[in-house]
TrEMBL record, chain B:
Organism the protein comes from: Sneathiella sedimenti
UniProt xrefs under InterPro entries: ABC_transp_permease
Keywords: Cell membrane, Membrane, Transmembrane, Transmembrane helix
Membrane topology according to the record: Multi-pass membrane protein
Positions of transmembrane segments: 6-27, 92-114, 159-176, 279-303
Official protein name in the record: ABC transporter permease
Domain of life the protein comes from: Bacteria
Subcellular location: Cell membrane
Statement: the UniProt record of this protein carries the keyword Transmembrane: yes
Automatic annotation (TrEMBL), chain C:
Transmembrane segments: 21-43, 63-85, 97-114, 120-138, 150-170, 206-224, 254-270, 276-297, 304-320, 335-353
Protein name (Swiss-Prot/TrEMBL): ABC transporter permease
Presence of keyword Membrane: yes
Keywords: Cell membrane, Membrane, Transmembrane, Transmembrane helix
InterPro entries, per database record: ABC_transp_permease (IPR001851)
Source lineage: Bacteria, Pseudomonadati, Pseudomonadota, Alphaproteobacteria, Sneathiellales
From TrEMBL, chain D:
Keyword vocabulary terms for this entry: ATP-binding, Nucleotide-binding
Provenance organism: Sneathiella sedimenti
Pfam families the record matches: ABC_tran
Domain (ABC transporter): residue spans on this chain: 8-243, 260-507
Domain of life: Bacteria
Protein name per its UniProtKB record: ABC transporter ATP-binding protein
InterPro entries linked: AAA+_ATPase, ABC_carbohydrate_import_ATPase, ABC_transporter-like_ATP-bd, ABC_transporter-like_CS, P-loop_NTPase
GO molecular function terms listed in the Swiss-Prot or TrEMBL record: ATP binding
Length: 305, 323, 373, 517
């Protein structure tokens, strides 16, 4: 058959160890499960986003998956220009009849790792390091903070942002310095939501024998022993599912919100963080998870504020 | 936390951040003092960072990686010399071209060699320069003030930080107290004088650029094998330009340049701590303004205190035998 | 007295076509050859790649539209850097000035959108120019009056502009209904007309600002070489003492040239915000300001040269993205390598082949003796 | 090598720059222990020939023999090794270095400086004594007056063991005293058995010091003569190819009203150094006031203040009775409008923009005049036409209004500047070093033009370090020393000795000198 899926990665590139890489893993899994090859493009310039999405549609892609909130405008334009093509956008809502929007409840996942952080912290101070100060990152930060305070109302959360240019997502040395400065201020667990910059944060934690929490993909394998857990954002699953559904004909437009309930976000428990993430913590996180799903705990979504 | 402690920890961070800046700025000093503009510091650092991480990952030795980083940086420096000295090309364009080529080539090769999306494997063990505990660090811990300073500030850095510290007096000595330094300073001021003194202008500039490559190579290797633990694309993130700014700020002299680098690094360290802090009267300053602080400070200092900088007179001009 | 057979003091002139066509072509070919070697090394077919590159840049109407759209930005920043060069200044701040220009355009299109397009157009242009010029004014003033090194201050101002932009888009101008750091869209009546709405061609981002770029190029030529203001700017750039001798104020002209430079860079904002994205977004300047340095230098600070260099860069951007798309082994990084190599050979190594080509030319076209008095 | 072989012998040297045949079949023989002069007009090929000897350029063909041995001189290094030293027309010194550092550059003696510097210091002190070349070896070269910089250049050559010393127009920038001192040095060198080659435009110097003279014209060697067997006039004719007037002919001046009155003028520079001290001067219509003085005694600042480039610290300048200082008119641009013309001392530094074409240089300072502007547009055609007329009237060569200013020789560049300033028909003309580095043919022409201006009733101020020039041009002479005016006298009453003393700061050197106004 000639089903043709396409994917457009955003500026970090498909091997950013985090968000785009998760999408890449999803599409690779789709490829290996179905044997269907896909069109792909890594955006390098702001102006390329539109061109890339439209080009996919023009090339006759059946579904175009756009990764990242920044592609919303491009998807909107392309979807209007190619009403017969299916579009899926991750992390943003585009309200058009041929667009499926998948957004995640990052605050919920962040809340859970916040609990783990608070419980693992001996000093009562934990850190958060974001890439750029943009709403999406604040969403992570807010959920995390609420989780920390939920587990330990007296805890302190130090927040840092890396920079104001796109370089902020790719500056591991800066990330490592920020982490160190937080450790100097007594933090002993740090959560990085900063793309490539986060690698420096995790490294720094490993160097200083502190704990770190990864983001998006499972990053625990990077530094076994100092990785507390990773806040998983199952972009891989979302991409895989949307492509599969398009192939099967079950693809539907509209908004999909993937939270804890849908297993869209979560935390990692694996061989790498065994012992670091204790049974107590896992239990507490699972309990909170159930409470959130049941509506007993309300985690604030920054976007709704 | 005590103010004293805070300051010591800030300075500690300052040293780590300043190290690549100092090395790169000193590298730029040799080039620019010899009359060759070098905005390719960024590319040379990036190339070295990649080579060092790649070779360290394969060989398992940080030292071998450092060697590879230095060689790569020297090779790039020689390309710059070939374009600007041998063929009298535009020095700014050459530097930019090198920056761009390296920015593209490092992930391309990284992808081809490691299939990790242009990154190198993460380095651990001997493949990375680790912190060195200086002698007596533990025993002196209890000495008031000094002990704390020694343990927190002086001890416990990796070898390249100490190298950078040593590089300043060594480079100053080379520049001011050796034949090579005299000639480098002369050729940047008046290449005709050097030529008529029977010294080859081109060869002298090549030698200066080898020094540049050497120092820049250490700076780049530091990023990927000492401060960080592996290469990731564009990891220099503008440090080359900042080093150049520090060099100009320091008026092309080693010691003032060192202080300029320390100042940049210090504002960077302070900036991290000011984020989200509720300042009396002002409240919480938006993080973007705090992040812009080092740059605003630089502009203010330049406008207020430093005054006119006099670059080497022949800088930027290819040497053409004429009157 | 015996007549001399040579004209004293005038070296043999190499004709324009050798200087401005043959030599650049040879340089370009050299860059492509080396790129071909790299492509061979990573295991692909360089001839194929070249075909895709050229096809991608010029092969079909849409490609041409995209190429010219990128070209537009490079013309703006190339001219911006060039005017500063004529005054002896190195403006590395075109990136930040472009960002500010975008803010200016954005504010006009967001908050003055009750105006009809024919009124919006001059206001938006004016705002882009004024914001860009204002951002260039401070470094210029500091250079002229306080002697602060303009290279550093403009670099710093790029960082500050990025911070300001992020702040505005995150805290102030952010679309209340959106989640990403962008303003709300500007309404359609304020959009710059696309070229495809006027000329029959497929839909591309190419818009009216391309025409602005051409007009500004002509204006640049006129200003620099055919007005007393351009004359003064060039005197200051070439010889500051002579300027003072001639009663030309260096500081006034430094400020003037930098403000013109900032205004020109600001037009990138017109093309991007009012022409294409139709909302204020982060990072729309995308490195055009830095590339403008190479464009200006390769274009010898002359509008025709700048146009050609901008076209080359536009073609590389567009053809390069086609290349990354069409050939799997060639990714975005490889395209950057090719771009870098072209800058290296056509810019930095431009003199490499010149002596040989000139020697060959001389052999085949020996100097005609000129009678001297 | 025999005792009789000449120190330097050139055989059939050829050198072309593109189509320009700068040296054609040049042969030259220089006796050991002699001073050999080379003269020729601007662009005759003198510097090129010497650059070949020094290894700076490569000859296309021909041989160079030093002490009878054929030498392959490929670069300055091999020339230095052959015992040749050169003092270039434009000094080859690093301004930011000390004298000592400049001298050891290239012969530092080991990779560490300190040892080399110490031994060089000793050797230099010996050389300074031996040749009377005193200079403070720790001074920064940029701070030294030209005369001393030249000594540094000579010391540099001697320190390298030069046996043959080439000097390219060494006196162009020197005062008579400095020049005399230089000649004494050259004499000493000759006595010590060294060989000196001296390039100059000044026939006085040739006659005074050389043993033999060679004359070049348009790339060829046209004559070799013994100095004792020739005369100034004969040499001038050989150089130019026609007979020249060596002394300006002029009527006595008929001074009229005072146009510019300078009173108590003081200027203190940015480093707080007083450069002008209490200057009083009157410029009268129809008269040339000459300012004599050793360079660096405030003449440059005086010109720049009067030209509106510097703002005086205090004092008054009145033009036709109106006060200029503090008024709007007191700026270079406005002064031109009210009738000031200014030929600057240094044509490269301020008079011209070397990268501009001749026609663009023609409007420098006058570019906003209506005749060069049509609405917004700068009228290129008018510029070229004006330039063309200047070129014809002032005999500028080559006669190409599109040629870059840097493509003209110094003399022709000077003519371009003079043409521009004189043809505006200013009421007041300020002229600095009108004939520096200019050949005798051109000097004759420039002097004639200045006299013509005077006779047309203009007030002219001529600043020159050439005492001869001041004496022959000026009607009144004021002497500057250390920023002040030492005294003023009528040109007819002045003698060279008297002026020389005043230039050294001796106030009442002359019985006949009027006190400063
Ligand atoms: N670098 C060069 N490139 C091209 N032509 C040159 C160069 N140097 C000299 N020439 C040519 O050679 C001729 C001789 O020049 P040279 O400098 O030797 O003259 P000169 O006798 O020293 O003149 P002056 O008295 O002005 O110093 C000039 O007319 C010029 O045309
Ligand atoms: N790069 C060059 N190309 C072509 N001709 C040149 C070049 N440099 C010098 N010349 C020619 O060399 C001749 C002599 O030039 P030079 O600079 O020696 O003049 P000059 O009289 O010595 O001036 P000054 O004493 O003010 O330096 C001129 O005719 C000039 O045209
Ligand atoms: Mg000469
Ligand atoms: Mg001369």
């Amino acid at each position: 058959e000639d089903f043709k899926p396409a994917i457009v990665f955003d500026m970090g590139g498909k091997s950013d160890k985090s968000f785009n890489e998760a999408a890449f893993n999803g599409v690779e899994k789709f490829k290996s499960d179905t044997g269907i090859d896909y069109l792909e493009y890594e955006v390098t310039k702001v102006s390329e986003r539109e061109q890339a999405t439209e080009r996919m549609a023009r090339k006759g892609a059946d579904i175009v998956v756009a990764i990242g909130f920044a592609q919303a405008a491009a998807v909107e334009k392309a979807a209007k220009a190619y009403p017969d093509t299916k579009f899926t956008i991750i992390d943003m809502v585009v309200d058009l009849p041929n667009v499926q929007s998948i957004v995640f409840r990052e605050e919920q996942g962040s809340f859970l790792v916040g609990i783990a952080a608070a419980m693992a912290s001996k000093t009562g101070t934990v850190g958060f390091i974001g890439g750029m100060d943009i709403p999406l990152i604040r969403k992570f930060a807010l959920g995390y903070k609420e989780g920390v305070l939920y587990a330990n109302p007296n805890a302190e959360v130090i927040e840092n942002m890396t920079g104001t240019t796109p370089a902020a997502w790719n500056d591991p040395t800066k990330g490592s310095e920020l982490a160190k400065s937080q450790f100097d201020r007594n933090a002993d667990v740090v959560f990085a939501a900063a793309g490539g910059t986060g690698l420096g944060v995790l490294q720094s934690a490993a160097d200083e024998k502190k704990l770190a929490i990864g983001v998006d993909s499972n990053q625990d394998h990077l530094h076994p022993g100092t990785m507390l857990t990773s806040m998983l954002k199952r972009v891989d699953v979302a991409v895989y599912n949307t492509m599969m559904s398009a192939k099967d004909g079950t693809w539907k437009p509209g908004v999909q919100v993937l939270g804890l309930e849908e297993d869209g976000v979560g935390f990692s428990v694996d061989e790498w963080n065994k012992g670091v993430l204790t049974e107590d913590m896992i239990a507490a996180m699972n309990k909170a998870k159930a409470d959130i799903i049941a509506g007993k705990i309300k985690v604030t979504n920054y976007m709704d504020k | 936390m005590e103010t004293f402690q805070i300051i010591v920890l800030l300075l500690d961070a300052t040293f780590r951040v300043a190290t690549p800046l100092v090395l790169a700025a000193l590298a730029g000093m040799f080039s620019e003092r010899a009359g060759v503009v070098d905005i390719g510091l960024e590319g040379k650092m990036l190339g070295a960072a990649f080579a060092a991480a790649a070779v360290a990952a394969v060989s398992g030795s940080a030292w071998v990686g450092l060697g590879a980083g230095i060689l790569t940086s020297i090779a790039l420096s020689m390309l710059h010399a070939y374009a600007c000295v041998t063929h009298k090309g535009n020095q700014v364009v050459s530097g930019m071209a090198i920056n761009i080529v390296v920015a593209g080539l490092t992930p391309t090769l990284g992808y081809a060699w490691f299939s990790m999306g242009g990154q190198t494997p993460s380095l651990s063990g001997d493949a990375r320069f680790k912190s060195i505990i200086l002698p007596f660090a533990e025993s002196s811990r209890d000495i008031p003030i000094f002990g704390y300073l020694y343990v927190e500030l002086i001890s416990n850095h990796n070898i390249i930080v100490y190298l950078a510290a040593a590089a300043v007096p060594i480079c100053a000595w080379i520049l001011y107290k050796t034949r090579f330094g005299l000639r480098v300073r002369a050729v940047g001021e008046n290449p005709h004088a050097v030529d008529t003194a029977g010294i080859s202008v081109d060869w002298l500039r090549y030698k200066a650029l080898i020094m540049t490559g050497f120092l820049c190579g250490i700076a780049g290797s530091y990023l990927s094998t000492a401060h960080g633990a592996g290469f990731i694309r564009d990891m220099t993130a503008g440090k080359g330009y900042l080093a150049l700014a520090a060099l100009i700020f320091g008026k092309w002299r080693p010691v003032p340049t060192l202080f300029a680098c320390l100042l940049f690094a210090f504002t960077d360290a302070v900036q991290a701590r000011l984020q989200g802090v509720d300042l009396p009267l002002i409240g919480v300053i938006p993080v973007q303004f705090i992040q812009a602080l080092p740059y605003i400070l630089t502009v203010l200092l330049l406008a207020g205190f430093v005054g006119k900088a006099h670059p080497p007179k022949a800088i930027g001009e290819p040497y053409i035998k004429e009157r | 007295m015996a007549e001399e057979k040579v004209k004293f003091g005038a070296p043999l002139k190499i004709p324009g076509w050798v200087n401005y066509a043959l030599i650049p072509l040879v340089n370009l070919i050299a860059a492509l050859l080396i790129s071909g070697v790299v492509i061979l090394i990573i295991g692909d077919n360089p001839i194929e790649a070249l075909k895709v590159l050229i096809y991608g840049a010029f092969g079909y109407p849409e490609a041409v539209g995209y190429t010219l759209y990128y070209t537009t930005n490079f013309i703006f920043t190339g001219l911006a850097v060039a005017i500063a060069f004529h005054c002896g200044l190195f403006n590395i701040g075109a990136e930040g000035q472009a960002a500010l220009g975008g803010i200016g355009v954005g504010l006009v299109c967001l908050y003055m959108d009750w105006m009809p397009l024919w009124m919006i157009i001059p206001f938006a242009m004016g705002a882009a120019a004024i914001f860009g010029a204002a951002w260039a004014y401070i470094p210029a003033y500091l250079q002229a009056k306080r002697g602060s090194h303009i290279v550093i201050t403009t670099i710093m101002f790029n960082f500050i502009a990025a911070s300001l932009m992020t702040y505005l888009l995150v805290e102030v101008l952010i679309d209340p209904n959106g989640q990403s750091p962008e303003s709300r869209p500007i309404i359609e009546t304020t959009w710059l007309p696309y070229i495809h709405e006027v000329v029959s061609m497929p839909k591309t981002p190419l818009n009216l600002s391309f025409v602005y770029a051409l007009i500004l190029s002509a204006g640049f030529y006129f200003l620099v070489w055919h007005t007393r203001w351009g004359y003064e700017i060039r005197v200051v750039g070439q010889n500051e003492t002579a300027a003072r001798y001639a009663g030309i104020s260096p500081s006034k002209n430094i400020i003037l040239a930098m403000m013109i430079s900032g205004a020109l860079a600001g037009f990138v904002g017109v093309n991007e915000i009012q022409g294409v994205h139709h909302r204020l977004i982060l990072d729309f300047t995308g490195g055009y300001g830095f590339a403008g340095i190479a464009v200006a230098l390769m274009g010898r600070n002359h509008p025709i040269g700048i146009f050609l260099a901008a076209l080359l860069f536009g073609a590389l951007y567009q053809g390069g993205s086609e290349l990354a798309f069409e050939m799997k082994s060639i990714n975005k990084e490889m395209v950057i390598v090719i771009q870098g190599l072209i800058i290296l050979f056509s810019g930095a190594l431009e003199h490499m082949f010149r002596p040989k080509i000139e020697a060959i030319y001389r052999r085949f076209a020996p100097a005609r003796p000129v009678e001297a008095r | 090598m025999s005792e009789q072989s000449p120190a330097l012998e050139l055989r059939r040297i050829n050198k072309s720059f593109g189509p320009v045949h700068a040296n054609k079949d040049i042969s030259l023989s220089v006796d050991r222990g002699s001073i050999h002069g080379i003269v020729g007009e601007n662009g005759a090929g003198k510097s090129t020939l010497m650059s070949i000897v020094y290894g700076f350029y490569q000859a296309d063909s021909g041989d160079i023999c030093v002490n009878g041995q054929n030498c392959h001189i490929e670069n300055p290094q091999s020339s230095i090794e052959a015992g040749i030293g050169m003092v270039h027309q434009h000094f080859m010194l690093v301004d930011t270095f000390t004298v000592l550092e400049n001298i050891v550059l290239g012969v530092e003696g080991g990779y560490r400086l300190s040892a080399g510097l110490a031994s060089a210091r000793k050797e230099l002190i010996r050389l300074e004594k031996e040749y009377a070349l005193e200079v403070n070896v720790d001074a920064t070269v940029g701070d030294l007056p030209v005369g001393l910089r030249q000594r540094v250049e000579i010391l540099k050559a001697l320190y390298r063991g030069a046996e043959i010393l080439i000097l390219d127009e060494p006196t162009g920038v020197l005062t008579p005293q400095e020049a005399d001192h230089l000649f004494r040095i050259l004499d000493t060198l000759r006595d010590q058995g060294k060989t000196v080659i001296l390039i100059t435009h000044k026939l006085r110097e040739i006659m005074a010091i050389t043993d033999n003279v060679s004359v070049m014209r348009r790339g060829e060697m046209v004559a070799h003569v013994k100095t004792s067997e020739t005369s100034k006039a004969a040499l001038a004719e050989l150089m130019v190819g026609r007979s020249v007037l060596l002394q300006v002919e002029k009527e006595p001046a008929r001074p009229k009203d005072t146009l510019v009155a300078v009173r108590n003028l003081t200027y203190i520079d940015a480093d707080d150094v007083p450069r002008l001290k209490d200057i009083n001067l009157d410029l009268k219509a129809g008269e040339i006031l000459g300012i004599a003085g050793v360079s660096g005694n405030g003449q440059s600042e005086l010109l720049e203040v009067l030209g509106g480039m510097l703002t005086p610290t205090s004092g008054s300048i009145r033009f036709e009775g109106k006060e200029l200082v503090g008024s709007k008119a007191f700026a270079a641009r406005n002064l031109r409008k009210i009738g000031f013309g200014h030929v600057p001392e240094d044509r490269h530094r301020s008079g011209l923009v070397l990268s501009f074409s001749a026609n663009e240089c023609t409007v420098l300072g006058y570019h906003d005049k209506p005749e060069y502007n049509r609405g917004l547009r700068l009228d290129r055609r008018a510029m070229v036409e004006t330039c063309q007329t200047y070129i014809e009237k002032y005999d500028v060569r080559p006669p190409d209004p599109y040629l870059k200013a840097s493509g003209f020789s110094g003399g022709n560049q000077q003519k371009l500047v003079l043409a521009r300033e004189m043809e505006q028909n200013p009421d007041v003309l300020l002229v600095g070093q009108p004939t520096r580095g200019v050949d005798i043919g051109a000097i004759e022409f420039i002097h004639k033009q200045l006299i013509k201006m005077r006779d047309a009733g203009k007030a002219i101020l001529v600043v020159s370090v050439e005492i001869e020039e001041v004496m022959s041009l000026a009607d009144r002479i004021a002497v500057m020393f250390d920023g002040g005016i030492v005294g003023e006298l009528a040109a007819s009453e002045a003698t060279e000795a008297q002026l020389g003393l005043m230039m050294a700061g001796v106030r009442d050197a002359s019985s006949g000198a009027k006190a400063a106004v």
